[in-house]
Amino acid sequence: MLTDKFLRLQSFFFRLLGIQLLLDRGLGCRRYPRRAIFCILSVGSFMPLTIAFGLRNIQNVEGLTDSLCSGLVDLLALCKIVFFFWHYEDFRTLIQRFHNMLNMEIHWTPCELIVTRQNRRDQFISALYSHCFMMAGLSACLMSPLSMLSGYLRTGEVQPELPFPSLYPWDNSHLNNYLFSYLWNVSAALGVALPTVCVDTLFCSLTHNLCALFEIAQHKMMHFEGETEEETRENLVHIFQLYEECLDLGHSLNGYFRPLIFAQFVAASLHLCVLCYQLSAHLMEPAMLFYAAFTTAILSQVSIYCFCGMSVQEKSQGLGQAIYESNWLPLLKENLPLVKSLKIAMMRARRGCQINGYFFEANRQTLVMIVRSAISYVILLRSLA
């Protein structure tokens, strides 16, 4: 029986959207649930207000960067949830393939321990990331009421403030108008946070389980010797088939997430740029706490893709080292064709399984490049301010 931590947190978040991930739960499945449609509509309807605010402040660098920050978050969230719906059945089939393969491999105790360890690590990282992203959205929604309260205590007047930069065709100084606008902002924040956390943590979980399968192949490679020559050959055939299936899973996973990784990395460079600029502009103000939380959320978001992609590449390349460390010397005397097969497997393992976003590889070097690019953009903006 597969560990209960497999997609546990991810299933909870997707159920909040009305989506069922696993095929064997028997709870039914709706491809276009109402809660997910509400999230899409709330974000999609809010984006024109953000664009209008940016056009109105096009000569003001601070106002323009503020609207760009909000607009990038909204656009990226829409891309993720729409892309997920577009490939909904493909994602469910991929998840079921992972589920079936893991169920086949965990009957051996060492393999079960590998899968359990990777899923525990995934749930910890996913929970930490989701809390970080949700806290950023919550701080944005609470910042404006607290700022209004602080202004009222200082001046005795109430100045309407909203969580996100937006321009409205009505006067928000009236209470009813302000409450409607504020609820619209909150619904847009929820519509951004929930789909983003769903898709990002799904990627985190699938890559961790893919790493578990590669680890299982390595562990079996270290203990491939059988009591007879025929048993040894069957063990190696099983290991090579398992590795081939893992590579195929990795190729499918990369194919589905590649457009999202590309959009994530491009948006992250601009996002970190405007957030760092806002941090420098509000360094000694209460708003700094919000921008700091938002910067942390964006960094954690892009870090998930980079470090998970790097882990998949390293684990997939580890088969070559496992072959080298295994007891292959007796085969030199007993079965030379099997030795040649091991050589071919080592050559293939050098390439590994790559996770990329077309022009960007998901690894630590890409993360450093994104941060450096963001700092360069900040210096440019500071010179224009």
TrEMBL record:
GO terms for molecular function: odorant binding; olfactory receptor activity. It comes from the Eukaryota. One of its GO terms (biological process) is signal transduction. It holds the Pfam family 7tm_6. InterPro entries: 7tm6_olfct_rcpt (IPR004117). The chain crosses the membrane at residues 35-55, 67-88, 127-153, 182-203, 260-281, 287-308. GO terms for cellular component: plasma membrane. Its main location: membrane. It is a multi-pass membrane protein. The keyword Transmembrane helix applies. It is found in: Cell membrane. Keywords: Cell membrane, Membrane, Olfaction, Receptor, Sensory transduction, Transducer, Transmembrane, Transmembrane helix. Belongs to the insect chemoreceptor superfamily. Heteromeric odorant receptor channel (TC 1.A.69) family. This is Odorant receptor. The lineage of its organism: Eukaryota, Metazoa, Ecdysozoa, Arthropoda, Hexapoda.
